[in-house]
Amino acid sequence: MGYWLLKSEPDVFGIDHLKGRHDQTEPWDGVRNYQARNMLRDQMRVGDLAFLYHSSCTVPGIVGIVQVVREGYPDASQFDPDAKYFDPKSSPASPRWYRVDVRYKRHMKRPLPLAELRTYASGPLADLPLLRKGNRLSVMPVTPEQWEFILALENR
DNA sequence: GCCAACGTTGGC
DNA sequence: GCCAACGTTGGC
Questions:
Q1: pLDDT, tens digit, for every residue of A14-44?
Q2: Which nucleotides of B are covered by protein (CB under 7 A)?
């Protein structure tokens, strides 16, 4: 099973909103970055777990856990001229952008602020892409070791 | 609001 | 293929 971290602004895709949805499931769409696209399309599997991270807010950090319930399929918003994420260079015959569906699992027992995660940037979380300078990926892999370490932070 | 970092675009 | 310009991200 794979582990991931999904980053979004809480106003755009927030954990409380997801929890309140029917089926507590939503497409993770609007990703327009090729590196992230490749992971959505090729690597994420049903059953994989992901930390949900809130960015561009008062306290950026990991707020909960979601599960992949549908594997990569074309992101419909790219074909809609009225959609924010419309891409005129894409076509249904050869879609450029993909999305997965994720389901709410749970909130963290407490939010894990970026500032706290950073204190382990030279230790157990040294290779976590989130902590690398200038990181802008909205989808990134997490190793099993990193996953377990971050989970354990909940109880501190 | 500022600014550093990054990805993308487009002229050549 | 290079690289400057530009737009976006995201922490602070």
A1: 999 999 998 999 999 999 999 999 999 999 9
A2: 4-8
Q: What angle is formed at CA A18 by the lines to CA A156 and CA A151, rounded to 5 degrees?
A: 20
Task: Using a pLDDT cut of 70, give the percent of chain A over it.
Answer: 100
pLDDT means over runs of 10, chain A (156 residues):
96 95 94 94 97 96 98 92 85 92 98 97 95 93 97 95
Closest nucleotide to A61 by C1' from CA: C11
For residue A88, say whether its CB is under 7 Å from any atom of strand B. Answer: no
Find the Å distance, CA of residue A148 to C1' of nucleotide C9. Answer: 28
Q: Which residues touch strand C (CB under 7 A)?
A: A 7, 9, 55-57, 60, 114-115, 118, 135-138
CA A24 to C1' C12, whole Å:
33
